[in-house]
Specification:
Blueprint (H helix, E strand, L loop, with lengths): L2 E5 L2 E3 L9 E2 L2 E4 L2 E5 L1 H4 L4 E4 L4 E4 L1 E6 L1 H7 L3 E2 L6 H14 L6 E6 L11 H5 L7 E5 L4 E4 L1 H7 L11 E5 L5 E7 H14 L2 H17 L2 E9 L1 H13 L7 E7 L6 H15 L7 E9 L27 H13 L3 E6 L2 H18 L7 E4 L7 H8 L2 E4 L9 H8 L10 H7 L3 E3 L10 H10 L19 H8 L1 H5 L18 E4 L3 H4 L9 E6 L2 E5 H4 L3
Parallel strand pairs: 1-6, 2-7, 8-15, 9-10, 10-11, 15-16, 16-17, 17-18, 18-19, 19-20, 20-21
Antiparallel strand pairs: 1-4, 2-3, 4-5, 7-22, 11-12, 12-14, 13-14, 22-23, 23-24
Helix pairs in contact: 2-7, 7-8, 9-10, 10-11, 11-12, 12-14, 15-16
């Protein structure tokens, strides 16, 4: 049995008892933490001198999209392009760099970087017209395509809008190059999935695993799992000798077909997978339901109209939602519901209340994802129902907030992303990044959480600093509570005897150096189950 002792640094344990949140030494035997403090040094072992570095529990990204993230890391990055000319220049450069490519894919563009917030196919055609171009919006709820892509997808003026989505059209009814919500899923993503090979998915998985290991992330929760993702992660487990550098839990994406029997039939596969023997490396634990869209695209379901007088219908009306939630709840599946607008979160909680009434007192820990604007009282209602608030600090980054605020344009803006409400109400709060809709960098995520300032552009002033959280609380939500959000509270997510040896060593201590140091701090080493998955000393010492 190998025993390793970490000493001569600061170790944040993420204990719920404030008196035990910090220690100076940590002992690991094989895959498990066996002692902390003086007891860690009592029996000796191989010593790791931290030299003043900071040790944290490994981060769990409690809401992410693994295959899409790996694919995005290989696509044209457009978030920093703040004008149409900037976007076009990046596309022109990408096309010139790979003239033999048969398709061009980009990701991360922002609505307020396009004139009038209204992208068109012609805008892309002006620089790339010879191959299909697919550009996923920063929120991954819309896809902007060129004329060649519309032709490839077979979209014409006669193509009907799918349930829960829309094909953008010009004044004459012709497709204009925008695909919203389920139109993006069914057409753009459907084409992408059909054209992607297993080898390409494997490359994406390896990019994702490497990126997360370098970021100090030791666990992830995928929120759009399907057969392609399952097969790709299973192949990765085999390639890596039966274990992974990141623990993967997954929610299976269930789509609203508009037909109750077909909706319920989708649960059968999830129940089958959830009943497989438990694995610490890959498990399917529940379902994901996308109830609405996003505020930036005016597709989130709101209780009151947007500034332009419009509103959006839910993708899952309550009549379709409630039976699926009740059936999944009865089957013991965790239910995660994307609910950005207040009408969506209200419907989600109503469906859970009906499931509880129907199924009685059984173990459950359901989740609402995002909650960018929720009506007053929502946090208290969630706490009563035992529903987790799954939140993404990076979505509140001030550098991308202006368009969000403009779409609402009223007093609702003052209650944007009010994380302390959920804490005060007693709801479990789990932090994540929703990569690739935002950067996967765990430390940058903590910077936004602790300051409400921008990690994308530090020159932008903080927005709603009253909603910032103490750094210790933010890190606890991204480690201990993120693990607890999927039922792992008793074995990982904090550093304590008997818990998994999942940790990250950071070169800078932001508790003493200040929150701003999170923007330059870097992981020195990441460990999962007692094994190094990343070591900067050998690869790229900051």
């Amino acid at each position: 049995m190998t025993r390793t002792v970490f000493r001569n640094g600061r170790i944040f344990t993420a204990a719920t008892d404030l008196a035990r949140q910090w220690t100076h030494s940590l002992a690991i035997e094989d895959e498990t933490v066996v002692a902390i403090g003086d007891a860690a040094e009592a029996r000796g072992g191989e010593v790791v001198d931290l030299d003043g570095a900071l040790v944290l529990p490994g981060f769990t990204d409690a809401h992410t999209h693994l295959i899409m993230m790996g694919q995005a890391l290989g696509q044209v990055a457009l978030t920093d392009a703040r004008t149409l000319d900037d976007i076009r220049e990046l596309l022109r450069e990408a096309r010139a760099a790979d003239p033999d490519a048969v398709v061009l894919r980009g990701r991360g563009w922002l609505f307020d970087s396009v004139p009038g917030g209204a992208p068109t196919a012609a805008m892309i055609d002006a620089v790339v017209s010879d191959v299909p171009v697919y550009l996923d919006a920063n929120d991954y709820h819309s896809c902007w395509v060129n004329t060649a892509a519309l032709a490839e997808l077979g979209i014409t003026r006669d193509t009907p809008d799918p349930l829960g989505g829309a094909i953008g059209r010009d004044a004459d009814g012709e497709p204009n190059g925008m695909l919203f919500e389920t139109a993006a899923v069914q057409y753009a993503w459907g084409r992408r999935d059909a054209a992607t090979t297993d080898a390409e998915r494997d490359e994406a998985v390896e990019r994702m695993l490497d990126a997360y290991s370098r970021a100090g992330v030791t666990g992830v929760v995928d929120m759009a799992f399907n057969e392609h993702a399952l097969a790709a992660i299973e192949r990765a487990v085999e390639r890596h000798g039966g274990r992974l550098p990141v623990r993967v839990s997954a929610h299976w994406l269930v789509e609203n077909t508009g037909d109750l029997s077909r909706n319920l039939a989708q649960l059968d596969r999830v129940v089958e997978l959830a009943r497989r023997p438990a694995s610490p490396w890959l498990r399917v634990i529940g379902i994901k339901l996308i109830l609405d869209g996003t505020i930036d695209a005016c597709t989130a379901a709101m209780g009151a109209p947007y500034a332009d007088g419009s509103n959006a219908e839910p993708i899952w009306p309550l009549r379709d939602l409630a039976p699926v939630v009740a059936a999944a709840d009865a089957a013991g599946l965790q239910i995660a519901m994307h609910a950005i607008g207040d009408a969506a979160s209200d419907a989600a909680l109503t469906a859970i209340e009906r499931a509880i009434a129907a199924n009685g007192d059984i173990p459950r820990r359901h989740r609402l994802e995002h909650l960018e604007y929720a009506a007053p009282g929502t946090a208290e209602r969630m706490a009563r129902l035992g529903v987790t608030a799954s939140l993404q600090p990076v979505h509140a980054d001030p550098a991308i907030f202006a368009n969000w605020a403009a779409m609402l344009g009223d007093e609702r803006v003052d209650r944007a992303f009010p994380w302390p409400e959920y804490e005060r109400a007693g709801a479990l709060v789990a932090f994540s990044t929703d990569a690739p809709t935002a950067p996967h960098d765990a430390l940058a995520n903590m910077y936004v959480a602790a300051t409400r300032a921008s990690a994308l552009d530090p020159s932008v002033s903080a927005v709603h600093p009253q909603y910032a959280l103490p750094l210790a609380d933010a890190i606890a939500h991204a480690t201990r509570d993120a693990a607890a959000s999927i039922g792992d509270a008793d074995w990982r997510g904090r550093l304590a005897p008997g818990f998994a040896a999942d940790l990250v060593v950071i070169d800078t201590d932001p508790f003493t150096a200040g929150a701003a140091s999170l923007l330059t701090a870097r992981p020195l080493m990441t460990m999962v189950a007692g094994r190094e998955t990343f070591a900067a000393a050998r690869e790229d010492t900051p």
